[in-house]
Amino acid sequence: MIAFLSGRVASRGGGTAVVDVGGVGITVHCTPATLARLRVGEHTTVATSLVVREDSLTLFGFGDDDERDVFERLQTASGVGPRLALAMLAVHTPDALRRAVAAEDTGALTQVPGIGKKGAQRIVLELKDRLGAPAGDDQPPAPDRAAAPASLPWRPQVVSGLVNLGWSTRDAEAAADAVAAEAGEEPDVAVLLRSALRRLSRA
User: Which segments of the protein form a coiled coil according to its record (predicted)?
Assistant: First the structure.
């Protein structure tokens, strides 16, 4: 198993990043939040999980070991493959997923594209004793709606993340515009992306 990659970020975009490790460019599939933390040209370390199929070897990258471990445990539920597990971590943090499963909050799980009510019920049933207890309160602070959003350097990242999760460009752009008021002076791309996903899921 490849537990992590450490090297220079050669490129990123389209849901993937390429990390230059000793002169070899390795592609990793990441959540939008993880991609948002990577800077082209800078050194990085990402926790990884290797998914082996008959016709492919796919490496997934995460911001920390906990996110990687939850990604792997999510796939122990029937019907949850790596792509759906990645989408779940794009919408919810690891602790938010733990809380949703522990509280049998199927509504939170159905915010993830590709998960319906029956699928959410199955995930709760099968993962209730596997994800563990939440490590802490990871709820984002209430947005300062009075703060005027600055220029929007985060907008392309949010739109790209939504499109990679299956939404149309038109819907993704509309959702990004809808959460602009939540950006504040120092926008957190991961928080804005999750807010945009919740808006789209309610639509």
Answer: none
